Amino acid sequence: MPESAAVVSSGQEAAREPRDWSLDLLRIGAILGVVSIHTFGALMTNPAMRGTADRWVAVALDAGMIWAVPVFVMMSGTLLLSPRAHADGPARFYRRRLVRLLPAFVVWQVFYLLVVRQLISGLHETPGDVLKLLLSGTTYTHLYFLWLILGLYAVAPVLRAFLAQGGRARAMWFAGIVLSASVLTSISSSLLGFAGDPRPLTLLALTQWIPYVGYFLAGWALKDVLLTGFARWGVTAIAVLSVAEIVLQSGKGWTGPLFAFLPLSYYGPVPALAAVSIFLAVRSWCGRVELPAAAERVLRELSEATFGVYLVHFVVLILLRMLPPFATYATSAPVSLLLFAATAALSFAVVAVLRRIPVLRRIV
To answer: Which residues contact 263 (CB under 8 A, 6 or more apart)?
Structure first.
């Protein structure tokens, strides 16, 4: 999900704990994955492009990035479920995190509702429409993530209390059981739909977090797992193969009984496998490698900007799509690639500026 409100640490915590640059790399990769999904979605879903090479590029860079949000949530767990984060009790935990999250939560909801939806997109929604968006937690495409993180904040002290005395074994079992419950629920919904009894999973503002608790726990359970040898190559192969299956299934539009068991949601079985294996593979390949200090500083700066990039990139994308060079973004893979690069670069630049303005720093 950025360094986000979910994975941000205070200056004091950063000073006490050595920084793990592999997590910085995962954050950067995940935010680029999110920007890619939102950039290439129009090309991937354009029916006129079906069967073209351009569409396959879009499928790879949209559906193939489905692991990004689950990986964000896993990284949140590596920080928010640590004993140190809860050492001063729940009240202190909530106060420190909410002071960080709430300004961004309020400002960006208002910004996308009023500026993006009303002024830029010209939707002219009624107060009733706005209330529906707020109650569903979908004031804009990507802002459900703010509700998701708020919910995980709420339950983190309870989860930490259960994990406190059980060691890694309890964390592994707990994460596996909870994540499996989410995956099986996704499969159940898909199977009921295939059987002619549609039961779509509906998440509202206060329930956006529920399917992601397994990922949250998995981030903590797997945070110190650094595989070597055959196991490292094996998990890397699983990551590649699972992403390839997602791309093929999405691109080919495969249906039938088998694929009813393989829904392509954030908590479907193959996306879950992709997210966990990518997390493990990157940590295992990079976790023991030391970088030059300058390289670590660059990664740290980019990583700490990812929460802001998550929040601002959509309006940057919308504005760029209005410019003539990007007019054919929904029919051309090269133009979409250029749009992606411009959106990502400009979003990082905007956040770099905002982070240097004391008042605005609090919302990115």
So the answer is: 186, 187, 189, 190, 269
Rounded Cα distance, 45 and 48, in Å:
9
Closest CA to 263 of 339, 201, 350: 201
pLDDT at 290: 87
DSSP state of 204: -
Q: What is the DSSP string of 172-197?
A: HHHHHHHHHHHHHHHHHHHHHHHTT-
Q: What is the pLDDT of residue 165?
A: 86
What 8-state DSSP symbol labels residue 112? I
Residue in this structure with the two tokens 């509700």, named with its chain if needed: 147
Q: Tens of pLDDT along 286-307?
A: 988 888 989 999 999 999 999 9
- Contacts of residue 57, defined as CB under 8 A and 6 or more positions apart, other chains included, come to 40, 43, 333, 336, 337
Q: Whole-structure pTM over 0.85, yes or no?
A: yes
Rounded to 5°, angle at Cα 131 from 127 and 134: 140
Which tens digit of pLDDT belongs to each residue from 114-171?
999 999 998 988 999 999 999 999 999 999 999 999 999 999 999 999 999 888 899 9
| Beta carbons within 10 angstroms of residue 233's beta carbon | 14
Distance between CA atoms of 113 and 87, rounded to whole angstroms?
Answer: 38
Query: Which residues have CB under 8 Å from 108's CB, separation 6+?
Result: 143, 146, 311, 363
For residue 172, give both structure tokens.
């592994």
For the ranges 19-23, 190-194, 251-255, the lowest mean pLDDT is seen at 19-23
Whether 263 and 186 have beta carbons less than 8 Å apart is answered as yes
